[in-house]
Amino acid sequence: MSLTRRVSSSLPQFVGFAKRSFKSYKLPGDPSSSPSLTYGIHIFHCPDEVGIVAKLSECIASRGGNILGADVFVPENKNVFYSRSEFVFDPVKWPREQMDEDFMKLSRMYSATRSVVRVPDLDPKFKISVLASKQDHCLVDLLHGWQDRRLPVDITCVISNHHRDPNTHVMSFLERNNIPYHYLQTTKENKREGEILELVLNTDFLVLARYMQVLSGHFLRTYGKDVINIHHGLLPSFKGGNPCKQAFDAGVKLIGATSHFVTEELDSGPIIEQMVEGVSHRDNLQSFVQKSENLERQCLSKAIRSYCELRVLPYEENRTVVF
Fold first, then answer.
1. Per the CB 3.0–4.6 Å rule, which of 53, 183, 227, 323 could disulfide with 71?
2. Where's the ACT domain (predicted)?
3. What mean pLDDT is predicted for residues 110-128?
4. Reduced to 3 states, what is the DSSP secondary structure of residue 88?
5. What's the pLDDT tens digit per position in 22-35?
6. Alpha-carbon distance 109 to 19, whole Å?
7. pTM value > 0.90
């Protein structure tokens, strides 16, 4: 059982602010405010004590910023504090470097485990590489999400253990958008992990878009950053190969998809997002697979957006807080 504390914004006009631009927004009732406000996000994870929310608010307000909304989670009997704040500010009055310094002071004050600030209009987009095998549905959805700017990422390359002909939809899209494609044929003895590590050296995180190879513990430790995977089914059910066929043969009435972080233990990493849909005896294997693939696309895309919007924080050994 856990206890959740929530702080709500008193500015209803900001509903849906994640899809809006604040570059020309003027705070209501404040004629002296700058017409060029910028949107920022801050997440905080530290030992719990009285007054943290007040100090976070004071930090933002003291520089002329205005909090749009804040989520706070304090698990019962855990002595740990999590928060995610969204705010607008004038970058002239609160330069980006000063913002980092101000939040760093709070981090030292409260011995924070994690304190991250992000300003989407000023900071570089997250650089990712996508690993895929033969199935295209998740890869295609990510590519179109990137093209439509639904996903705030830059795709540095696509890596696959499956050869694709030059005239396919995926290859034409990649060539048209100057995204490199690296075909690395793998065997049981050689997963080409050294070459993959070289290709993803400058990325912020990796996405496995139905990549049907198990990444070794050595790879994960060497890469040292997050890897997000998509799995058919509501983990921990139907692990390993061909989970869709496993679920169909089991006669399930509810199918799902799980997006999770990759760890050394197969399909057991902390869960980011899960989605479900009903199936029945009227579904054949083809309709079953179509529904499953649709869930996988949605679930993976939502997990990536949540990660980029700093909504996902580690909680205990194998869980997550997702604001």
1. 323
2. 41-124
3. 96
4. strand
5. 333 444 444 444 45
6. 33
7. no
